[in-house]
């Protein structure tokens, strides 16, 4: 009879499409993964993986077995959950986060999280929502904090927080021109990458206000935008929470403009599965975490 370790190896090979990726995810050697699959196929009496395909796919009967294997692993986890305190989790957790959250409440949240899961190893990835969602779909991430709302197939989500987006610049720039409209005409806007929701919303606002000629520069680094705005290069279009200390010190100031970007909303997303209980628990903790207090602490 097969055991759960063999089922787990099979499920992750199908999800990730390779023995190597499955071994990496489960923190095993590739020979160990291969050995588990060999034992499983020996028990079943036939091959359940098409090894000649890239990515590796299950056979016809392997696809049917995959559905049952997932259910068995989920049932096992559900049965054991009452006997496993959250703090006992000792594996590696892959968390993806957009940069806005990194510059607001993430440091305090991770400090709190390490107290709840002292044996957990965190693998943190900071990227755009688009790329994080791709990695979540390919099972390279356990949980992602992204800009939303997002409709992602086979995923669950919870709302985390919302931040206003404002125009931010060096105070001397505004003093050197007659009005905010003139400031907008003379200096470029600095904002999120082109494939992001904030950029697309800003572009729509400019077009609707007859300001489509305004130059917009993009950066994947919010701190770069803050530094460029402080240097007087342009006008940042970002949440003020990112640069609260600079605003408090008078190094940057908020500017009223003829257009007003909508708030940025953030969500946690994860893929349900037999091993998603920690992702669900961490997401729930992120929802209830006191983010305002965390942001104030780092100002």
TrEMBL record:
It comes from the Bacteria. Belongs to the LysR transcriptional regulatory family. Coiled coil: none annotated. Pfam families: HTH_1, LysR_substrate. This is Transcriptional regulator, LysR family. One of its GO terms (molecular function) is DNA-binding transcription factor activity. It comes from Marinobacterium lutimaris. Keywords: DNA-binding, Transcription, Transcription regulation. Gene3D superfamilies: Periplasmic binding protein-like II, Winged helix-like DNA-binding domain superfamily/Winged helix DNA-binding domain. Residues 2-59 form the HTH lysR-type domain.
